[in-house]
Amino acid sequence: MKACIYPGSFDPITKGHMDIIDRACNLFPRVYVGVLNNTAKKNLFSVEERIEMIRRATSGMEEVEVVAFDGLLVELMKKLECKIIIRGLRTGTDLELEQQLSVINGKLFPGAETVALLSKPETYFISSSAVRELIEFRADISDYVPKEVADMINGGIAK
């Protein structure tokens, strides 16, 4: 079975992320959403909260499995026996970074491939950092995150 992994911090998961997950589900029978626990980064939401947001937002998607990880992505890929990384690209800057990471990941885990999906025009401007800023100022985030996520955040999990 060919599986793929879509890694990220997902702090929080956005409609742009959901579009990439949905499209990956059309391409692969198993889509792992890898939630990075990067202790060097200050996240607004805990790993557990981010995992719960993603699980709620993907509850109708049988192909999706949410997993947490820290350290190198390729170590998780080896454990999951998964060689395909899904990445969403919004800008040329994203492309340059993903090209670099693809080479490094391929050296660390021979056979690893990166599949890039271009963001759709209606979501390319959405970023988790912009959503976090809106949350900090208590602005409406409903246009940028799945309803389940907005409900969780508005229900009081925001810091």
What does this structure look like?
- With 159 residues, the protein is an alpha/beta fold.
- It has a single domain, classed as HUPs (Rossmann fold, 3-Layer(aba) Sandwich), CATH 3.40.50.
- The protein is built from six helices and five strands; from the N terminus they run βαβαβαβαβαα.
- Helix 2 (47-57) links the parallel strand 2 and strand 3.
- Helix 2 (47-57) runs antiparallel to helix 6.
- The longest helix is centred in the middle third of the chain and has 17 residues, at 92-108.
- The mean pLDDT is 94.
Outline:
By secondary structure, this protein is an alpha/beta fold. Helix content is 43%, strand content 19%.
Helices and strands, with pairings:
Elements: E1 3-8, H1 15-27, E2 30-36, H2 47-57, E3 64-69, H3 73-80, E4 84-89, H4 92-108, E5 113-118, H5 128-136, H6 147-157
Parallel strand pairs: 1-2, 1-4, 2-3, 4-5
Helix pairs in contact: 2-6
What labels describe this entry?
5 strands, globular, alpha/beta, 159 residues, 43% helix, Rossmann fold, five-stranded parallel β-sheet
Give me the Rg, rounded: 15 Å
> Distance between the terminal alpha carbons, to the nearest Å?
40 Å
Low-confidence region ranges: none
The CATH architecture is 3-Layer(aba) Sandwich
Largest sheet: 5 strands, parallel
- Mean pLDDT comes to 94
CATH level 3 topology: Rossmann fold
Number of helices: 6
**What's the CATH superfamily, by name?**
HUPs
Strand content: 15-25%
Q: What is the 3D form?
A: globular
Instruction: Let me know the number of strands.
Output: 5
Total domains: 1
Q: For this structure, what is the CATH class?
A: Alpha Beta
Helix content: 40-55%
Q: Which structural class best describes the helix and strand composition?
A: alpha/beta
N to C succession of SSEs: EHEHEHEHEHH
Name the strands of the widest sheet in spatial order. 3-2-1-4-5
